[in-house]
Amino acid sequence: MTEDAPPTAGPGTWIGFIAMAVGMFMAILDIQIVASSLPDIQTALGITTNLTSWIQTAYLMAEVVAIPLTGFLARCLSTRFLFVGAVVGFTAASLACALSHGFAALVVWRVIQGFCGGAIIPCVFAAVFLLFPPRLHDRATMIAGALAMLAPTLGPSLGGWITESLSWHWLFLINLPPGIAVAALSGALIAIDRPNWQLLRRLDYASLVLLAAFLAMLELALKQAPDLGWLSEPALAMLAFCAATGTATVVRCLRRRDPIVDVRAFADRNFALGCGFSFVLGMGLYGATYLMPLFLGYIRQHSPLEIGAVMIVTGAAQLVCAPLTAWAEKFLDRRWLTAFGFGLFGVGLGLSGFETYATDFDEMLWPQLVRGSALMLCILPVTTIALGSLPAARVGNASGLFNLMRNLGGAIALALIDTVLEQRTPVHADRLVARLLAGDPAAARFVGLSTERFTGVPIGPIDQATREFVQPLVERAAMVASFNDAWLLLAVLVGLSLLAVPLFRRPS
User: Fold this and answer.
1) Are the CB atoms for 447 and 474 separated by under 8 Å?
2) What's the rounded Cα separation, in Å, for the pair 400 and 72?
3) Is residue 284 over pLDDT 90?
4) What element of type H or E holds 498?
């Protein structure tokens, strides 16, 4: 059980904590709403598609570097001053992004915005266990978890509305009012710990450089490898660099008295397993929120606003089930709640693995309801198991590592999905062509052709006009089949995580 937790929490503490959770919601939401408007930003700045992707990559690379540093920075500055400073920096960088008139300036400010956003997220989950007594942990975790999981779901909808109703500048300007309010409320109402400026004198700058290089290069490798090929020389060089810097970082942190990241926390079995489940949750969550808009945009040709309207179902289901999950956590073993949640989440992912070119809102309804119902069951008990038994002095660092694992899981899932879509689509196209030539009616239906000519008998040679008519239909169907492969891969990976549930030590 976390030490030094207060015996109770007054209204001011709750208001301050909710303000912190809203700040985290802003940081996570920013990634999704900007993603939906990248084409508009590309047109406005007159840049190529390859350069446009760096608007997102810059944010993600800075965020993933900041998250594990949060524990050390919180010990130096105190959790309150770190959080308020990060919110102020995030808000100011948002304003600078909106005012940027060139690509270089926008990327620089996105780096600052991403670093500040990455520092916000672990502070909130650490505050759950530092601000509240154990009996209130489930309620506070529910608030933080609901907003953390809701942001990726609402992002496409909100981003689509802003894109169609306003200009891309408002993707950043909307952060200003809540940012100012969050900074003021959290600064006035939250008091968790005291700063220890002496730690800055003992800062291991070599570890800092190694950690930043490792995480930034890992994010870059995961982004580039699907296009370059995992066995290409550049990809292998980046992965080798990651292995070298990552190993060096761990070795230095183990040797330091005040390490920049306390990797010894992984010696706690429940924390290590909890991080593993956080990693898997990141794969499923970010993988799903990547696949759905991609399918609806490329296959169904929906606008960003229409995509958001379809995806809102997951968020609605999540909000409805969040209080039920918090209630269940009081009476049931968190280990088996975790098993049920991840099992249900895996089923929801698997249900999406049988889509056709005609799949739309109605067909996506039940898979989304299942996934949305499972999300809080995935995050609430695991968070409590992973962080709830650690002493207060270690919660800040542990929260950073816990959240880092979720982000890394998402990054790896996106790389796997891109690899599946890149490599499996041509394979499916060749197989569909072979089946069509063999007269397979099931293949004809999947492609979108009339089955009159497909009776199980080879149809013989076809003319050029027919080839030109059928080719785009085959390509579309092959892409759909690749999407299904990606969905099923995510479902299998989430399902395999259930094997680790019995390894959890029973929480005290």
Assistant:
1) yes
2) 9
3) yes
4) none
373-429: pLDDT as tens digits = 998 899 889 988 888 777 877 787 888 888 889 888 988 998 899 899 989 999 999
More confident: 5 or 175:
175
Tokens of 62: 């800075």
Distance of CA 348 to the CA centre of its chain: 17
Its pTM stands at 0.87
Any idea what the Cα angle at residue 326 is, between residues 322 and 330, rounded to 5°? 165
C-alpha to C-alpha distances, 456 to 40, 257, 447, 470, 477, nearest whole angstrom: 48, 72, 16, 18, 20
What distance in Å separates the CA atoms of residue 184 and residue 189, rounded to the nearest whole number?
Answer: 9
Question: What whole-number distance in Å separates Cα of residue 461 and Cα of residue 449?
Answer: 17
Q: Are 152 and 291 in contact (CB under 8 A)?
A: no
Residue 192 phi/psi, 5-degree rounding, is -110, -50
For 471, what's the count of Cα atoms within 13 Å in the CB-facing half-sphere? 7
**How many CB atoms within 10 Å of residue 482?**
21
Rounded to the nearest 10 degrees, the angle between the axes of helix 137-165 and helix 304-331 is 180
Q: Residue type at 504?
A: F
Burial of 43 (0-12, 13-18, 19+ CB in 10 A): exposed
Give the pLDDT confidence of 428-450 residue by residue, as tens digits.
Answer: 999 999 999 888 899 999 999 88
Per the CB < 8 A criterion, the answer to whether 143 and 21 are in contact is yes
The label of the residue with tokens 């799903």 reads 288
**Range name among 38-47, 62-71, 84-93, 421-430 with the lowest pLDDT average:** 38-47
Helix axis angle, 11-35 to 38-45, nearest 10°: 60
Structure tokens at 194: 């005291």
d(CA 191, CA 189): 7
d(C-alpha 255, C-alpha 374), whole Å: 40
Q: Is 190 left (phi over 0), alpha (psi -120 to 50) or beta?
A: beta
Average pLDDT for residues 134-145, to the nearest whole number?
83
The secondary structure of 312-365 as a DSSP string is HHHHHHHHHHHHHHHHHHHHS-HHHHHHHHHHHHHHHHHHGGG--TT--HHHHH
- Residue 42 · residue 56 · CB < 8 Å: no
Residues in the chain: 508
Q: Are 288 and 349 in contact (CB under 8 A)?
A: yes
Q: How far apart are CA 216 and CA 210, in angstroms?
A: 10
Can you tell me whether residue 413 is helix, strand or coil? helix
Residue 12 confidence (pLDDT) = 86
